[in-house]
What does this fold into?
Amino acid sequence: MSQEIDVSLVHVTKRFGDLTAVDDVSFDIPKGSFFSVLGPSGSGKTTILRMIAGFETPTSGDIYIGGERVNDVPPNKRRCNMVFQRLALFPMMNVLENVTFGLRRRGGMSKAEMEKLAEDALARVGLQGLGKRKINQISGGQQQRVALARSLVLDPTVLLLDEPLGSLDLKLRQAMKLELKHLQARMGTTFVYITHDQTIALAMSDTIAVINKGKIEQIAPPEVLYRRPATHFVASFVGENNKLLAGRVTRQVDDQVCEVDFGGIPMVGRMGDPLKPGDTVDLFIRPEMILLRPGKHQDGILGKITEINFDGSHSLIAVALTESSRPLAINVKLQHTEQAPDVAVGDIVTLSWRWDAANAFHPVDQSHIEKEA
Ligand code: ATP
It folds into this structure.
């Protein structure tokens, strides 16, 4: 089944002087999907968004919106609209005037028509009846929704969102991220959301592109990104992980699974990179995927609990591996279910995990050397 594509980047590069901010990036964003670009500060996210919006021109490569090549199309002629992190609402205007602002600039409509559209947009974001309030008379979350309504009223094919939840406190951010996702699903508008906050990207997106130093590391649905990271960077950036450094591959079990030795202890993991016996690897193990059993068992790794940190629904348990020839510790996230074992600091425990709870990659430095060689 072929999907209709709303936004396409084809080998897009953007240089600022000597700096390559975006490096040969290509992706397709299907119509009606929630697409996030996730990466650390300075990785090139804003530059990508600004090129889609038309505020920057690619140094090379092409950008398509709705099938049309838009490299030379000015921002106001592109069927996309941008919601900024600093919402840029006008404090002197009331909510309704803020929402009709773009329509007034566009022109060609009566005041009544514009206000009708604005009321509809406000209703869509759950703010009906607040049109007459001044911006400083509504809460931060409501301001967020006004900024959304102001963009939605222009009926863009694509809505570009520059981390608009970033300025909200944690609780409001949690609430708004679900609202935003529901709104997007209801409206069917294509959302392109940039963020450095993985919890936001994982919770809202249909697809996430992880970017690092201007290059795409992986493009995948959240679950795939989380379970099967494609690169060392994605494994360390997305989700919590135990990161064990510089083990040695002892055996390739099949084309996906390998055994790795850390200080004389055999561990199992998924091969994120093509690996062979003798290779040095870093192993990333998800703390919530580790089975912790009290006492000694043959089929696992022995350790001693050194710390327990209670965190509401779960505890984070630090376990020092007792049979390792070098100091090694693994954190286990233990959910407080009825089946959860009762454990205390000093207890001997056995750890084990399914092969796909751990991901093995060449250490980053080595892979750089290999790439450059
Ligand atoms: P953040 O999360 O901090 O906003 P980002 O991932 O959005 O970061 P960009 O703003 O796209 O990153 O910047 C990517 C790189 O390009 C950075 O090194 C930045 O300093 C540089 N850069 C961005 N805009 C310009 C510009 N107009 N002139 C020169 N360099 C720029």
DSSP finds nine helices and 20 strands in the chain. The chain has two domains: 5-232, 240-368.
